[in-house]
Design brief:
Bound molecules: zinc ion
Number of helices: 9
Strand order of the largest sheet: 1-2-3-5-4
Radius of gyration: 20 Å
CATH topology of the largest domain: de novo design (two linked rop proteins)
Strand content: 15-25%
Helix content: 40-55%
Structural class: alpha+beta
Distance between the termini: 65 Å
Length: 257
């Protein structure tokens, strides 16, 4: 079969890097094509028709031509610029963090329709003021969709029943670990019953259902740290945007004094 010379895709622009005087290479995450890169020629010139339609954190429809080394954007049209999201520093920090997670966890040209739908939903909810709960749900569903969901229904090592008490969450073992199996589990973190319940609930809850759960600041913080450790284990690093999110949050808390 002859490969068509052009293809259409709808996706979220994850990042840009500039090339030469006027060109930029954009990384797009779409449901149909997965993650891909293409070059927008002359996009940094004032008269470029694509300018503004290819900014990071924009949902765009693009027409792309296969190139010899790099594919080339030939048309771009904004579907959603998330204008209100951009105006809210905390929400945009959460959104940029979600984009980085997608970027780090995906390979090029691997169609992931469900992950794309999840990202689009998360961005809309963040824009509506959903806050950090949207990100927690997004992190857990992303892990689940990529096959890294932590096992929480029993001990991940012996499959035994777990008491309702603080329990070890071991990223290396892939879930919760009973007291008898601690020595086999490797490193991990003790998490409270409240966090265990939230992890379990996130498996079947939609983002709005998950956001509706009221938790104390302590539990929310514990949940955030527990998931961060899972992500760090799989990525072998912390996402850069995490520091941005934390910086914005501490700025916000100082503002409340
Ligand atoms: Zn066990």
């Amino acid at each position: 079969m002859v490969r068509p010379r052009v293809y259409r895709a709808e996706g979220i622009i994850l990042r840009r890097r500039n090339l030469g005087e006027a060109d930029s290479i954009f990384t797009v995450f779409s449901g149909t094509e997965g993650k891909f890169e293409a070059i927008a020629k002359g996009v940094r010139k004032a008269r470029s028709r694509m300018r503004g339609h290819l900014e990071p954190l924009t949902r765009s429809r693009v027409l792309v031509a296969h190139g010899r080394s790099l594919d080339v954007f030939t048309q771009a049209e904004t579907v959603d610029s998330y204008r209100r999201l951009r105006e809210d520093l905390e929400a945009s920090a959460e959104a940029i963090y979600c984009l980085e997670l997608v970027d780090r966890f995906t390979e090029e040209r691997e169609p992931l329709h469900e992950l794309y739908a999840l990202l689009v939903t998360a961005l809309s909810l963040l824009e509506e003021g959903g806050g950090a709960a949207v990100t927690r749900h997004f992190e857990l569903r992303l892990l689940a969709l990529l096959g890294y969901e932590p096992y929480t229904e029993g001990c991940v090592i012996c499959e035994g029943h777990l008491e309702e008490e603080a329990t070890l969450l071991s990223p290396g073992a892939g879930g919760l670990v009973c007291r008898q199996c601690h020595t086999e589990a490797g490193r991990g973190r003790m998490i409270s019953v409240d966090v265990i319940k939230l992890l379990r609930f996130a498996k079947r809850a939609t983002a709005p259902e998950f956001m509706a759960v009221r938790t104390s600041l302590e539990v929310a913080q514990e949940m955030r740290v527990a998931i961060a450790e899972l992500l760090r284990y799989y990525l072998d690093r912390d996402p850069n945007a995490r520091r941005f999110v934390e910086g914005v949050r501490s700025l916000d808390q100082r503002g409340l004094d």
